[in-house]
Amino acid sequence: MNLTFVEAPAARFAAAAANLLADELSSAIEARGVAHLALSGGRSPWVIFGHLAELDVDWAKTHIWQVDERVAPDRDVDRNSVGLRSSFLSSTPIPEQNIHLMDVTSLDCERAAANYAADLARTCEGILDCVHLGLGVDGHTASWPPHDPILEVMDRDVAMTGEYNGYRRMSLTVPCVNRARQRLFTADSEEKLAALAALRAADPAIPASRVTHTNTRVLVSLSDH
User: Fold this and answer.
1) Is residue 83 situated within a structural domain?
2) Of 22, 113, 190, 224, which one is least surrounded by beta carbons within 10 A?
3) Range of the structural domain that residue 164 is part of
4) Cβ(120)–Cβ(80) below 8 Å
């Protein structure tokens, strides 16, 4: 099955992405009484999540998970959890017990990754309703660096990467992302056109090609010019 590409004007891109995520949450709650959403970090998604916080979702029935997290101290501005809390979590009435953050300050990150996977298994049987994914100019997603051994991990749902752009990362693995009911890539920069073309072609040279095309949408930004 081919990827589904959706376009939105640049001025409406963040709001369009938020609406797509909210629709997935509402559909999951209607179908199963609860929703499980995994959110990516980086630099670009915070505006999207700010819009999402303003939408009419039953937040009491929503669980938030992380797709990835940098190994950095608590409250470090490079931590995805800091951006999540400031842009989204602080503005929504999600019960604290429904917020599942990756423990990257543990003395044993491998064990912490296993514990996060166990939490996923216990809470939602390891099946997320929707996974939000970014797309790097080098074709990476979910903090899967090019050529990193995490791309070959098939027996765990959460694993550690090697150092990439100055940080090791904890990340959901390929099988965990692909097991989700839905996936949404967001790409809002013209710098990512080559990566988008490689994603569409399932180019094995880029990490994002490991993401299944089934039930996966790619929201791209249309230039306002």
Assistant:
1) yes
2) 224
3) 21-217
4) no
* pLDDT tens figures, 63-96: 999 999 999 999 999 999 999 999 999 999 999 9
Alpha helices in 33-73 (DSSP H): 46-53
Which pLDDT score, from 0 to 100, does residue 224 have? 57
Closest listed residue to residue 131, CA positions, set 74, 73, 78, 175: 175
Residue with tokens 């090697």: 162
**Residues in the chain, pLDDT under 70:** 1, 224-225
* 173 located within any domain: yes
DSSP result, 32-85: HS-EEEEE--SSSTHHHHHHHHTS---GGGEEEEESEEES--TT-TT-HHHHHH
Residue 35 within any structural domain of the chain? yes
Cα–Cα distance, 88 to 22 (Å, whole number): 13
Does 71 fall in a domain? yes
CATH code for the domain of 25: 3.40.50.1360
Contact 218, 182 (CB under 8 A): no
Domain count, the chain: 1
Query: CB of 225 within 8 A of CB of 12?
Result: no
Give one DSSP letter per residue of 99-114, joined into a string: EE----SSS-HHHHHH
Q: What is the pLDDT of residue 1?
A: 67
